[in-house]
């Protein structure tokens, strides 16, 4: 299988702290990659670079074989790399439909970038997007703060699917979720593979990502300390790496 | 299903404000029947549009997650400079244009200081409150200048049978900005920015640009409203709009705009502004000492916010219980 993302020798400093050290990584198309590591291991730095939020100080990123340089999250999103941040992926007070289309509203009577939203189309498409990820909610007008944690992650994943993302980066998507809700989210992520979406699942909870991952990558102190197929490793081996670095 | 719709309507904060409005109107009418006379409505609605316009600007800015305490001072500065420019020989329409630009510039400076230096807009605009008021006094040059009658004030404040032209201007502003806020993609960005700035920017929204737009709009509307008041009074006063910043925040909050951003409507802000003016009039008409107006306004603010908080907590709980089923 071909690689969808290739990182070569990425380095990033934050006011003197070497947050990412010569990180190289290959991510295969249509796979689930588990990116694990303790707090401060450099996972967040890596995602921020892949999602375009931050720029690396050195090193290169290749997307589908082409060298890319993201100046903003919008540029990464336009290529099909969508990132779901741990705390801030949805606006709690806004409706499901409005959340799904934030920044990518369907508009008419446009003047430049501005126009009136096609409310009805957005509502219908929102419901369709939810159904596509097997999420059945009452109404697209429900404010997101009335949904459970798992349902919210479902909405975010539905959003990424709707906009035909090729790569979905999930930052701790199962944090603070109950066991039942966690399983729901894991099922969403597993379902992405068959729809041609590559996902990078960031977590410090190995037991969440292990069952659904094809590939696992362990980070510590800004470096990659292990990178292997699931079949070449065991949960005990990974745990050992995580704990002892 | 019908029951569900009614419930979702009742939890909307501006609906609660509207109900409060109706109750207060009935109360004052019972106290004095002349409260709802054409004459009294003409008086109250003659001054209300100016407050509505400021409240709309404040509401949009607050929804985007920022404040503007300088609106009261801009409300005085803009018309004062217009009048002084006309006295200096600037053609009236050009003076109006330049005056409104001052509102835009003040809004821009407020936004620039807040966003560039990352300080709370509360502080940036508090500074501007004093600066703009001081500039107004300086521009007055000692004694309030006479109103130059070549300014086209009738266009903005002409007294029709019941309402003034200013009401139609306010309704136009409310309509256009209502469409923008509630129907356009820009409105979606404003709500997203105020609701959660980090989430909005991770979705590719340029939140600083959105906020800057709201700051400028707010400054412009405050100046425009101040112009209307000066045109109505036919006298530019350096003290005009004193304490208006707090009153317009009160109007927005009474109308269901959240202090934390992300929640509110144009309709709510308008109702809030109208409610405050009728409250003032009602207290006078009921022959209560006018000094009680501020106590009434204070109570209204507290009741409105407590009520809205209670309602929205309940709504969230109902929703989450449903989700668990």
Looking at how many chains there are and whether they match, the oligomeric state comes to: heterodimer
**Do you know the CATH topology of chain B?**
ABC transporter involved in vitamin B12 uptake, BtuC
Largest sheet report of chain A: 6 strands, mixed
- Total beta strands of chain B: 0
Low-confidence stretches of chain A: none
* Overall average residue pLDDT of chain B: 91
How many distinct domains of chain B? 1
Descriptive notes:
The complex is a heterodimer of chains A (245) and B (325). With 245 residues, chain A is an alpha/beta fold. Chain A has a single domain, classed as Rossmann fold, CATH 3.40.50. Chain A has eight helices and twelve strands. Chain A has helices at residues 43-50, 73-79, 96-100, 119-132, 149-162, 179-194, 206-209, 235-244, and strands at residues 3-14, 17-28, 32-37, 58-63, 66-68, 81-84, 107-111, 114-117, 167-171, 198-203, 215-220, 223-229. In chain A, the strands form three sheets. Chain A has a six-stranded mixed beta sheet with strand order 6-9-10-3-11-12, sandwiched between helices. Chain A has a four-stranded antiparallel beta sheet with strand order 2-1-4-5, covered by helices on one side. Helix content of chain B is 76%, strand content 0%. Chain B has helices at 2-10, 13-31, 38-63, 71-87, 92-116, 121-140, 154-157, 165-183, 185-195, 197-202, 207-233, 244-254, 266-285, 292-324. Chain B contains 14 helices and no strands. Chain B has one domain (41-145, 156-310): Orthogonal Bundle (ABC transporter involved in vitamin B12 uptake, BtuC). The A-B interface holds A 51, 53, 72-74, 77, 83, 85, 87-94, 98, 101-105, 107, 113-117, 119, 138, 142-143, 145-148, 151 and B 179, 183-189, 191-192, 195-196, 198-205, 262-263, 315-316, 318-320, 322-324.
